[in-house]
Amino acid sequence: QRNRVRVDYFKLSRFGDTILTVPLFFGNNTFNTNERFQSVLDWRQIGFTYTRSVWQSERVEVGVGLGVAFLEAKVRGEVTARNAREERSAVGGFPTLALDGTWRISKRWALNARGQRFSAHISDFQGLMAEYHGDVQYRWTGNFSLGLGYTKIRSQVDVENSDFTGRYHQQAAGPEIFIRASF
Fold first, then answer.
1. What would the pLDDT profile of 18-59 be if each residue is shown by its tens digit?
2. Which of 29, 49, 79, 130 is deepest in the core (most CB within 10 A)?
3. pTM of this prediction?
4. Cα 119 from Cα 139, distance rounded (Å)
């Protein structure tokens, strides 16, 4: 009654094509000003979150918990005119602290909000993983709901050391339609 486990999956693919206005240093290559640079990003994320209700009333419920998000990123950049290409990939996990709230408007309708976040700054590394979500749900049957919501996901990694210097900042946000199964 007071425990929840949530599994989320997110996939993002992006393609870029631009004329560089400043030099870009990526891997062992330098991509020069005025070159046509093409890039591809593939991002996958799966998250597991456990929350426990710490406060419940007839209409309101608030929970706290822990989560972990496993991330996989692949990025490629190239200037085809001179056959210069660089690829990198990485896999990692981020723990998160979670907060979850529900307001039951009526027997079939509810408003939900949740957020989870983790940030760290250790020596020459700084990272952030955050996800925020809000929705309205209609309970179709006892175990299934239909929902309309909005989600915002932020990921950020900054590394500066003698072996590797890099910066990755991503933000994805938008509306969603979903089906929720509860057991």
1. 999 999 988 888 999 999 999 999 999 999 999 999 999 999
2. 49
3. 0.79
4. 35
